[in-house]
Amino acid sequence: MASFRREVMEFYGRNRRTFPWREDITPYRVVVSEIMLQQTGVERVREKYEPFVRRLPDFSTLAAAPLKDIMTIWQGLGYNRRALSLKRLAGVVMERHSGRLPQDRGSLLELPGVGEATAGAIMAFAFNVPAVFIETNIRRVFIHCFFPDEANVSDRQIVPLIEAALDRSNPRDWYFALMDYGSHLGRTGSNANRKSLHYSRQSHFTGSDRELRGEAIRVLLVRGPMTVNDIAAAAGRDARRLVPVLDTMVGDGLLVREKESYRIA
Length: 265
Description:
Layout: H1 2-15, H2 27-37, H3 42-55, H4 59-64, H5 67-74, H6 81-96, H7 105-109, H8 116-127, H9 136-146, H10 155-165, H11 171-188, H12 209-223, E1 226-227, H13 228-235, H14 239-252, E2 255-258, E3 261-264
Antiparallel strand pairs: 1-3, 2-3
């Protein structure tokens, strides 16, 4: 374990990545980055992060902002439900926690859009609390270093090693180092995460419902309320295919249907 820690920290010392969410660290800035980084690569998040926190600099501003404004800033990140989750999260922080992000895992898990990994990351990065969590780059490092010849490695096997290796005096930098090393391994070698029991390929984006959702949001942000036929014409899509996608977004709280028209909620 000592050798492993040394390997990771030596790499980090030579190859530390810089991101805006690692500078001027506040609980709010960490939360925004962690929600953005769910299922989205760091380079795309890097591009969108600073404009977002400049326009919406704190929980109070975010909670009060119209969803349409938030969605406009969010465009290009995909998975638009995360923008709605962020707004709802900010509302809960303002209403239940007097505008201060809670530090304990239980309270964090009650926030919209926050699961186990995100809660652990927030604890470590926002508050430097030695929380144990696993995400894709961390998983890759531990499989690469501890399970080189095994397949179907479960997170249950990895988590005790994460806990044993954790730098409890400075978990923030330790997790930064693990993630940077994991990103390096993903770029320079075979993807060790393919040996994970939980590995699955992301479905194709082109032609997917995700693509339709994104196109509908873009059209409605620019043009305002529209009928399904008008949205389909603007997006160059089949209206019959679009109807269930739009209705799903109504159920998610992203859109509102008024008579024959849809609009951003």
